[in-house]
Design goal:
With 219 residues, this protein is mainly beta. The protein is built from one helix and 17 strands. A four-stranded antiparallel sheet has the order 4-5-6-7, with no helix packed on it. A four-stranded antiparallel sheet has the order 8-9-10-11, with no helix packed on it. The mean pLDDT is 92.
Length: 219
């Protein structure tokens, strides 16, 4: 690394991605971590053909767990998270979700010792000290016998509600993080896939198939 390392303090310290033979001499998924002004690159040897379908699955996310210096990884088309010590020392742990085989991207809370994740059509809450599931809610019922996924999970800085777009219903659901109930939904039409709240009450979303901007109000 070169230059001022201070900007790295305001962004996630870990990133995961695929590097091919030309880049590494040993193609695979690698974690890049920034620590003490330096970059550390480690191959994820646990993601191999013995445990995963490398043509069908991928490692799509990584987040740090502050209490115990662990990293939690999300996988494509999988119904578990992978928890690994930061220094790759100690046993790898696979944490079961809702058995829905979604694309799990872990959200690590700052206000509680929790990790939230979307497992296809179901939102799951975990206690990150024990990695036990403490709640889940199915947010999209099947249509004509076919399951439909929900979009990306989003929380405000206060973490007092969870925002889940539902492309199959044309709305965005607000989930109470304490009792895992849908407190209300905001109809946007179309098929919202990602959503966030800006400027207080402005709901901004992106349509699934077109990428078009969708707007609504939280109140």
């Amino acid at each position: 690394m070169e230059g001022d390392s201070a900007p790295w303090d305001s962004v996630p310290a870990h990133f995961v991605g695929w590097l091919n033979d030309n880049a590494t001499g040993a193609s695979g998924y690698y974690r890049i971590s920034i620590a003490d002004g330096d970059a550390h690159i480690d191959r994820l040897d646990w993601f191999d053909a013995n445990s995963y379908d490398l043509m069908y699955q991928s490692v799509i996310a990584v987040a740090s767990v502050p209490e115990n210096r662990e990293l939690v990884y999300g996988l494509q088309r999988s119904s578990h998270l992978v928890v690994v010590p930061v220094l790759e020392e100690g046993a790898l742990r696979r944490v079961a979700l809702a058995d829905r085989n979604g694309n799990a991207v872990p959200y690590v809370c700052t206000s509680a010792a929790e990790v939230w994740v979307v497992d296809y059509d179901t939102v799951v809450r975990l206690d990150r000290r024990t990695w036990e599931v403490t709640g889940s809610v199915l947010l999209q019922e099947p249509s004509a016998g076919t399951r439909m996924f929900v979009g990306d999970l989003w929380m405000p800085s206060t973490e007092d509600f969870v925002l889940i777009p539902r492309p199959g219903s044309g709305d965005v659901a607000l989930v109470n993080p304490r009792d895992m109930t849908v407190s209300r939904s905001i109809n946007l039409g179309r098929q919202p896939l990602t959503a966030a709240v800006v400027a207080g009450n402005q709901l901004v979303a992106r349509d699934w198939k077109t990428g078009n901007l969708l707007l609504g109000n939280l109140i």
